[in-house]
């Protein structure tokens, strides 16, 4: 295994585990749970094994174990207790911690072993909603706080995307429902974050709808070429970083004029960018959804 990052600050540990730095210091002093190295200026830094241990401690603590009880456990007993609890409850929390470790270490084997354990008892949709989505939300924050690098984020997103594509591929040979309307999924120009849109495509395919996935960075005027092929289209797009917030109303207005007037088509929108705006007045044929689950529920 290639340990790319081997030293972590106490702030890194706080971001990765959700345990406040002040609490970590108390646990060190009172219970000797971690033994950080110290720089010449007495600044703490922690090993990858310390991160793993703290993730396990956090898991046990969140599942009712008092810190004093955890401190009484032998070093090798802590991961055993974690596995015991994870096998019967809160498996999502354990999986998220395991996937964080896979990301930190660029460990593909750990990623796939964790996923394979999940899929034994959960549907792919359940895994996406309860593990992948919360993890991706955390990863965004970790990247913003410089706890991880873009390489870590890309590693995780690529492997999650592979799982979505694999599940979509299994549905590709199924015929759509008779007289089904067509869903066209696309990302606006300069938008490349397609995991959410891919999962929506999977959900639509699993429900028997006809879908056309156009992917990232699609110019508006190029969408006009599909209008002559289908009588009833629902366009779906996902705004993560683009368009810019102040340009979203103009984008929606232009889309409406170019693609939705005098026909049976409509547009469904969602994504983090839309949640950061004030109330947007949308045309009649444009609907904004706060989450993927909200959108999927109406399909």
Question: Which key features would you list for this structure?
Answer:
Multidrug-efflux Transporter Regulator, Chain: A, Domain 2, 5-stranded parallel β-sheet, Rossmann fold, 52% helix, alpha/beta, 2 domains, 299 residues, 13 helices
Q: Summarize the main sheet.
A: 5 strands, parallel
* CATH C-level class of the largest domain: Mainly Alpha
What general form does the structure show? elongated
CATH architecture of the largest domain: Orthogonal Bundle
Structural class label: alpha/beta
The proportion of residues in beta strands is 5-15%
Count of runs of 4 or more consecutive helical residues: 13
Report on the structure:
The protein is built from 13 helices and seven strands. With 299 residues, the chain is α/β, with parallel strands linked by helices. Helix 5 crosses helix 6, helix 6 packs across helix 9 (150-169) and helix 9 packs parallel to helix 10 (195-206). The mean pLDDT is 86. The radius of gyration is 23 Å and the shape is elongated. The two termini are 43 Å apart. It folds into two domains: 10-168, Multidrug-efflux Transporter Regulator, Chain: A, Domain 2; 182-298, Rossmann fold, CATH 3.40.50. The strands form two sheets. A five-stranded parallel β-sheet has the order 4-3-5-6-7, sandwiched between helices. Strands 1-2 form a two-stranded antiparallel sheet.
């Amino acid at each position: 295994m290639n340990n790319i990052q081997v030293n972590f600050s106490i702030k890194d540990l706080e971001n990765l585990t959700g345990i406040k730095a002040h609490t970590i210091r108390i646990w060190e002093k009172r219970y000797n749970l971690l033994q950080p190295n110290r720089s010449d200026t007495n600044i703490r830094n922690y090993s990858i094994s310390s991160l793993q241990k703290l993730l396990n401690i956090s898991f046990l603590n969140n599942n009712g174990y008092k810190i004093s009880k955890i401190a009484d456990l032998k070093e090798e007993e802590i991961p055993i207790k974690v596995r015991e609890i994870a096998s019967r409850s809160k498996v999502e929390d354990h999986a998220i911690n395991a996937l964080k470790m896979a990301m930190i270490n660029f460990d593909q084997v750990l990623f796939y072993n964790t996923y394979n354990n999940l899929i034994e008892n959960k549907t792919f949709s359940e895994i996406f909603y309860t593990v992948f989505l919360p993890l991706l939300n955390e990863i965004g924050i970790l990247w913003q706080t410089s706890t991880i690098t873009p390489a870590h984020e890309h590693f995780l997103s690529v492997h999650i995307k592979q799982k979505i594509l694999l599940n979509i591929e299994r549905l590709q040979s199924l015929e759509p429902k008779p007289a089904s309307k067509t869903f066209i999924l696309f990302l606006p120009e300069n938008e490349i974050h397609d995991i959410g849109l891919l999962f929506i495509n999977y959900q639509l395919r699993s429900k028997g709808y006809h879908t056309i996935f156009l992917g990232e960075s699609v110019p508006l005027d190029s969408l006009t070429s599909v209008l002559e092929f289908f009588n009833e289209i629902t366009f779906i797009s996902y705004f993560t970083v683009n368009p810019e917030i102040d340009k979203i109303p103009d984008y929606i207005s232009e889309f409406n004029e170019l693609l939705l007037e005098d026909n049976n088509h409509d547009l469904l929108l969602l994504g983090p960018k839309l949640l950061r705006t004030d109330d947007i007045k949308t045309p009649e044929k444009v609907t904004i959804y706060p989450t993927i689950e909200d959108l999927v529920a109406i399909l």
